[in-house]
Write a structure and sequence with these properties.
The protein has a domain of about 110 residues: Metal Binding Protein, Guanine Nucleotide Exchange Factor, Chain A (Beta Complex), CATH 2.170.150.40. By secondary structure, it is mainly β.
Length: about 160
């Protein structure tokens, strides 16, 4: 059963207006990720994936990520839209965030522009920001969406959303 979308105000997007299958779009917004005192990533060349009921997931070019702090995790998952995802641990100094980032080395044709681009779960990072605004992680432990003030739900991952 589809939930009732929250009302959106000026300049806000409802995740219920996002398409299924998801859409990929470039974004010039400033994306920054910090972990254990390090600016791990900074870009204005990200893509975002927009999917019904999910806040956007941002994919960053590897050239704008300090890749020396990522280690292959050996974990893979499969997305019906993007293909097989491969995970990374983020290790900075004495802190490690396991399976905190992922990418699609060989995504399906509609998502070819993000081949090798990296997405990060915001919860294990010290901060993830969009144009300087701290993001809230998508509810639950599986999805990697980034919630900002301009995105309204309800969001997949909240209690009772398993059947959406």
């Amino acid at each position: 059963m589809r939930p009732q979308p929250h009302p959106s105000g000026p300049g806000q997007e409802s995740v219920w207006a996002y398409p299924r299958p998801p859409r990929l779009e470039p974004t010039p917004r400033l994306i920054e990720i910090r972990f254990n005192g390090l600016l791990l990533a900074q870009t204005q060349r990200a893509y975002r994936v927009l999917e019904t009921s999910h806040p956007p997931v941002y994919y960053l070019p590897p050239s704008d990520v300090q890749m020396a702090y990522l280690r292959p995790a050996g974990r893979t998952t499969f997305c019906e839209w993007k293909g097989q995802g491969h995970y990374f641990h983020v290790q900075v100094g004495d802190r490690c965030a396991e399976n905190a980032a992922w990418h699609y080395p060989h995504p399906t044709p509609p998502f070819a522009p993000i081949a090798g681009y990296l997405a990060f779960y915001p919860r294990p990072m010290d901060s993830c920001t969009v144009d300087g605004e701290p993001v809230q992680p998508q509810p639950g432990g599986f999805y990697g969406g980034w919630i900002t003030a301009d995105i309204v739900g309800p969001f997949k991952g909240e209690p009772g959303t398993a059947a959406w």
